[in-house]
Amino acid sequence: MWEFLARSLEASTIFTFAALGELIGQRSGILNVGIEGVMLFGATLGFIAAQSTESYLIGFLVGIAIGGLLGLLHGFFSITLGGDQVVSGMGIWILGFGLTTYIGNPYTGPLGLERIPTIFGISPFFYLSIVLVFITWFVLSRTSLGLTIRSVGENPAVAEVSGVNVARTRYLCVIAGGMLMGLAGAIYSLDYNPVWNYNFLMGWGFIALALVFFSMWNPWLLLGGSLLFGTLWQLSLNPQLVLPGLLSRYIWRTIPFAITLAVLLIMSTRWFRTKWGAAKPEALGEPYIKD
Amino acid sequence: MRVGSYELKLKRRLTLTGWQAALISLLAIVVALALFGVIFLLAGINPFLAYKEIFSYAFANPYGLPLTINRFIFLLLCTFAFIIPFRAGLWNIGMTGQLYFGALGAFAVVFAFGGRASRSADLPLVLLIPLMLLAAALGGAGIASIAGYLKGKYNINEIVVTMILNFIAFWLVAFMIKEGGPFMNPGGRGESFELPTSVYAPLIMGVPITLFLALGLAVLLYLMFAKTRIGYQIRAYGKSPAAAKYAGISTFRIPVLVFVMGGAIAGWAGYHYFAAVPGVYKIPRNYGFFGDLAFYGIICGLISQGNPLAAIPVALLFSGLSIGTRFAQGKLHIGFGVDYALLGVLMITLVAFQFFYRYKIVGTKIEEETIDVGVSR
Question: CB A165: neighbour CB atoms within 10 A?
Answer without folding.
Answer: 13
